[in-house]
């Protein structure tokens, strides 16, 4: 089959073939991504912003994530499906982490989970992998740490912070993670990390030397405009296209240009006559 697997992640890095990822939160979007040849889809807790209208990911619940995961799963044929573990579902202890990761597989129909943190989360990663659930790490700007970071800013610019990120990446590889997301870290630090570890790095705001790239789909399609990070490239302005379509609809309904005959159903004159 053409299903993208954890082995395909490792092979891609070996063969210098860049890995492509995007987020999706619903069935139709998942279908579009899958049919366009994306390697893997993340049901990210970033849905807090474009889907839920919140300003951080911290309130997203496991049940909300599982609901979106199931919706996305129905639209996916070939891409690997990764479920993003929300805040506090993997921090307490390895047992809870395994049970909650398991729900992504059993109820969310995901193929793997992602969680934020490096060295500090290695025990959780190890426990989840021991339960035969593939884990993707995520270090650098980890949005669930916003209250510790004091905002969304680039990570690893100072020597000690950069050293800690290298340690985090090595700890994730050692714990059995199959890939690691690097978010908002300097390009040359991401290059160094990508060279130091055997598992692929998936960059977002981490430059061109990562083994793959991921973006939030609502950002790259121009569907969400409350906040656009520096690292986003907008490949389309669907918000503009959609607004145009909606205002055309509004004016056509008001001017009675819509609906037309072809959008309407008929009834025989015989039946109609009897009603008058
Ligand atoms: O939630 C998310 O979409 C993410 C990616 C941006 C890596 O964690
Ligand atoms: Na996330």
From TrEMBL:
The keyword Methyltransferase applies. Its main location: cytoplasm. GO terms for molecular function: 3-methyl-2-oxobutanoate hydroxymethyltransferase activity; magnesium ion binding; methyltransferase activity. It comes from Oxobacter pfennigii. GO terms for cellular component: cytoplasm. Belongs to the PanB family. Keywords: Cytoplasm, Magnesium, Metal-binding, Methyltransferase, Pantothenate biosynthesis, Transferase. Its cofactor is Mg(2+). It is found in: Cytoplasm. This is 3-methyl-2-oxobutanoate hydroxymethyltransferase. Pathway: Cofactor biosynthesis; (R)-pantothenate biosynthesis; (R)-pantoate from 3-methyl-2-oxobutanoate: step 1/2. Its EC number is 2.1.2.11. The active site is at 183 (proton acceptor). GO terms for biological process: methylation; pantothenate biosynthetic process. Mg(2+) binds at residues 45, 84, 116. It comes from the Bacteria. 3-methyl-2-oxobutanoate binds at residues 45-46, 84, 114. It holds the Pfam family Pantoate_transf. It catalyses: (6R)-5,10-methylene-5,6,7,8-tetrahydrofolate + 3-methyl-2-oxobutanoate + H2O = 2-dehydropantoate + (6S)-5,6,7,8-tetrahydrofolate. The keyword DNA-binding does not apply. Homodecamer; pentamer of dimers. Catalyzes the reversible reaction in which hydroxymethyl group from 5,10-methylenetetrahydrofolate is transferred onto alpha-ketoisovalerate to form ketopantoate. InterPro entries: Pantoate_hydroxy_MeTrfase (IPR003700), Pyrv/PenolPyrv_kinase-like_dom (IPR015813), Pyrv_kinase-like_dom_sf (IPR040442). Binds 1 Mg(2+) ion per subunit. It is an enzyme of class 2 (transferase).
């Amino acid at each position: 089959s053409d299903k993208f697997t954890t082995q395909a992640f490792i092979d891609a890095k070996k063969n210098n073939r860049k890995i492509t990822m995007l987020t999706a939160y619903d069935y139709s979007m998942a279908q579009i991504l899958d049919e366009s040849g994306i390697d893997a889809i993340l049901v990210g807790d970033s849905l807090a912003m474009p889907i839920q209208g919140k300003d951080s990911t911290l309130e997203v619940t496991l049940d909300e994530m599982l609901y979106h995961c199931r919706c996305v799963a129905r639209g996916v044929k070939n891409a690997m499906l990764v479920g993003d573990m929300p805040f506090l579902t993997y921090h307490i202890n390895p047992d809870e982490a395994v049970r909650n990761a398991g729900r992504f597989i059993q109820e969310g129909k995901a193929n793997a989970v992602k969680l934020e943190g490096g060295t500090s989360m290695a025990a959780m990663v190890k426990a989840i992998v021991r339960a035969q659930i593939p884990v993707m790490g995520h270090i650098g700007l980890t949005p669930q740490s916003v209250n510790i970071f004091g905002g969304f800013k680039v990570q690893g610019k100072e020597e000690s912070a950069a050293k800690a990120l290298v340690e985090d990446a090595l700890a994730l590889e050692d714990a059995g993670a199959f890939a690691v997301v690097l978010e908002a870290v300097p390009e040359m630090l991401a290059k160094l990390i990508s060279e130091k570890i055997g598992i692929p790095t998936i960059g977002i705001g981490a430059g061109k030397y990562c083994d793959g790239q991921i973006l939030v789909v609502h950002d790259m399609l121009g569907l969400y405009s409350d906040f656009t990070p520096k690292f986003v490239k907008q490949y389309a302005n669907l918000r503009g296209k959609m607004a145009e379509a909606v205002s055309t609809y509004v004016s056509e309904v008001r001017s009675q240009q819509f609906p037309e005959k072809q959008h309407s159903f008929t009834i025989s004159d015989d039946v109609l006559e009897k009603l008058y």
